[in-house]
Amino acid sequence: MLVRLAKLSCPGVNMERFAEEADVVIVGAGPAGLSAAIRLKQLAAEHGKDIRVCLVEKAAQIGAHTLSGACLDPAAFKELFPDWKEKGILYHEDGSVKGIATNDTTFERGLELHAKVTVFAEGCHGHLAKQLYKKFDLRASCDPQTYGIGLKEVGLDYQNPYLSPFREFQRWKHHPSIQPTLEGGKRIAYGARALNEGGLQSIPKLTFPGGLLIGCSPGFMNVPKIKGTHTAMKSGSLAAESIFNQLTSENLQSKTTGLHVTEYEDNLKKSWVWKELHAVRNIRPSCHGILGVYGGMIYTGIFYWIFRGMEPWTLKHK
């Protein structure tokens, strides 16, 4: 449903902004956002419900700035598409809804999207998520987030502020043991994106009135594996199931109050995502305490590979 909002006075030019009405808006069409949208539409079809979903992506098309070359852990993918091998081609459900306002383009006003629930799947450095952290104090009970820059998994914790990771990478490629492998090759593309590396200790509160966080917005990456796509997809699926349950079990007549889907965080903590992150929670912070890097490596070898994260303590990020 399109709703006209106030018109700005500008002689000879239509400056009206329209609002789109829907049930759920998802910001970011990465693995988590796509999984949430697909799972919502799957559930709607299974139960004969009409749930409108709007998936908003800042790029010109979905996947336009895909940089990850990671091998996908298929666990979440198999849950979302049990018959994916038989289907061959996958089709993404897309719709129109509410929750954000898109940027103005030249003299034309952007579009407002209104929804009962807004799902934020912006990735590591989403500017909307940063505003939500402050407004709802979502990081009050968690450790500070730590980051990697995505350039061969280099962390942003080196002490020399003048160090150029790109330059160091170029030097590495000229090493006598590496150069013969690359000689004669042609670089067809390059890029790097920031990564959340804080793990379990750095996950903020995931729900707030009118919305929730999924994927790399809160940060579900398994640091030792350097894999977060499968956990992001699972978080999207769990968010979709929780939203669906609340949308179909409540009287949703009010347009002035957003839904608070607390079930999502509870379900995530019961899932294999939380179990997987809990098992590796101490690996990253062990290298930044009194043990140092080498002590952290020894710690990881003993406590993770032998006890599989069952130690009764949790180390903190400094």
What's the helix and strand layout?
Layout: E1 2-7, E2 16-21, E3 24-27, H1 31-47, E4 53-56, H2 75-80, H3 84-87, E5 98-101, E6 112-114, E7 117-120, H4 127-136, E8 147-148, H5 165-173, H6 179-182, E9 195-196, E10 207-208, E11 211-213, H7 229-249, H8 263-270, H9 272-279, H10 283-286, H11 292-304
Parallel strand pairs: 2-6, 3-4, 3-7, 7-11
Antiparallel strand pairs: 1-2, 5-6, 8-9, 10-11
Helix pairs in contact: 1-7, 7-8
Please describe the biggest sheet, giving its number of strands, its sense, and whether it closes into a barrel: 5 strands, mixed
CATH architecture label name of the domain at 19-143 and 197-280 = 3-Layer(bba) Sandwich
Low-confidence region ranges: 86-98
**C-alpha Rg, in Å?**
22 Å
Strand order of the largest sheet: 4-3-7-11-10
Q: For this structure, what is the CATH class of the domain at 19-143 and 197-280?
A: Alpha Beta
EC number: 1.5.5.1
Keywords: Electron transport, FAD, Flavoprotein, Iron, Iron-sulfur, Membrane, Metal-binding, Oxidoreductase, Transmembrane, Transmembrane helix, Transport, Ubiquinone
Domain ETF-QO/FixC ubiquinone-binding: 154-195
Transmembrane segments: 289-307
Overview of the molecule:
Residues 154-195 form the ETF-QO/FixC ubiquinone-binding domain. By secondary structure, the chain is of the alpha/beta class. The chain has a domain at 19-143 and 197-280: FAD/NAD(P)-binding domain, CATH 3.50.50.60. The chain has 11 helices and 11 strands. The chain has helices at residues 31-47, 75-80, 84-87, 127-136, 165-173, 179-182, 229-249, 263-270, 272-279, 283-286, 292-304; strands spanning 2-7, 16-21, 24-27, 53-56, 98-101, 112-114, 117-120, 147-148, 195-196, 207-208, 211-213. Helix 1 (31-47) packs parallel to helix 7 (229-249) and helix 7 (229-249) crosses helix 8 (263-270). The chain is globular, with a radius of gyration of 22 Å. Mean pLDDT is 77; it is low at 86-98.
